[in-house]
Design goal:
- The chain has seven helices and 16 strands.
- By secondary structure, the chain is α/β, with parallel strands linked by helices.
- It has a six-stranded mixed β-sheet, covered by helices on one side.
- It is globular and about 80 Å long.
Length: about 300
């Protein structure tokens, strides 16, 4: 029996709806989005910092060319990457390392580890490969950079560095933090623009003396929260590891000095879909302290 016109139209409409859903999901997970923020700091002139995080081995075009082209177009003075460059289910580091290597052609690139590098004991291999590629890879250590007349003092945290028991906890999805006060006090004693790179935004405002924001620095850059995975109207981010349901720190700028900047991240781990939360490249302009820091 031949199909009626009505059934044909219904089938076409259903296929079109499915195609629109697939396109929407592709856009949510693959179309890069720039977030522009600013923060006052003791800089001589405005400095442009591109903040990347949580790539999880994903590629945006062959050899990450779309991502590289976007970063280059933002004309950064510094690129910071705050962990989870690779996913915990891969041994192939080539594409991820090559991304940061190619970004060093534009400006200094500074990197810290995330939980995924630790979870499968990839940290030593990642650090060695990045350092050989010209990336400044920090592990509870400091670097000093002179950029456009300003002296940048950068502390790169590795909060999960520790015992084999800590690593076992990481593999179970738990996270072991320690008192980072000694490192933050060292940063306080340095002259210049004081920046902190950490994977974990929840450490910015812990209870008591372990809270990072009780120390004197300018900006802390973090990832890990994945923008809450889904961002819903009138609700915000839905879930972030380390913070749970309706996380406090999941995107953008927080605080009034020191400031916290949280990237929504680039790739996925575990859950494969983002919703109203496209892959995120953050551009933070550090402005002379007398300027207004509102974003």
């Amino acid at each position: 029996m031949p199909l009626s016109i009505g059934w044909i139209l219904w089938a076409v409409a259903a296929l079109a709806a499915v195609a629109l859903v697939v396109l929407f999901c592709w856009i949510q997970n693959n179309l890069l989005q720039v977030t522009r923020l600013s923060a006052p700091a003791p800089v001589e002139q405005p400095l442009r910092v591109v903040h990347l995080s949580d790539l999880h081995g994903k590629q945006f075009g062959r050899g990450n060319r779309r991502l590289i082209r976007m970063v280059e177009g933002l004309c950064p003075d510094l690129v910071v990457f705050t962990g989870d460059l690779v996913n915990d289910d891969t041994d192939d580091l080539e594409a991820a390392v090559d991304l940061l290597r190619r970004l060093t052609a534009f400006c200094p690139v500074v990197y810290v580890l995330g939980n995924h590098e630790h979870r499968y004991h990839l940290e030593e291999r990642v650090l060695a490969r990045l350092q050989a590629a010209g990336v400044i890879a920090l592990r509870d250590s400091f670097c000093t950079l002179a950029v456009k007349g300003s002296r940048l003092q950068i502390l790169g945290m590795d909060e999960n560095q520790g015992s084999h028991e800590a690593y076992r906890q990481i593999r179970r999805g738990e996270y072991t933090y320690r008192d980072s006060g000694p490192l933050l006090r060292q940063l306080e004693a340095k002259n210049g623009v004081r920046l902190v790179l950490s994977h974990y935004p929840e450490n910015f405002a812990l209870i008591g003396e372990k809270s990072y924001n009780r120390y004197h620095f300018d900006v802390m850059f973090c990832g890990h929260a994945h923008g809450g995975q889904f961002i819903l109207p009138f609700f915000g981010g839905v879930f972030a590891p380390g913070q749970g349901i309706r996380p406090r720190y999941y995107r953008g700028r927080y605080g009034d000095g020191p400031y916290l900047v949280v990237s929504r991240g680039l790739g996925n781990s575990g859950f494969p879909l983002r919703l109203f939360n496209r892959p995120n490249v953050v551009l933070v302009t550090l402005t002379p302290s007398s300027s207004d820091g509102n974003a």
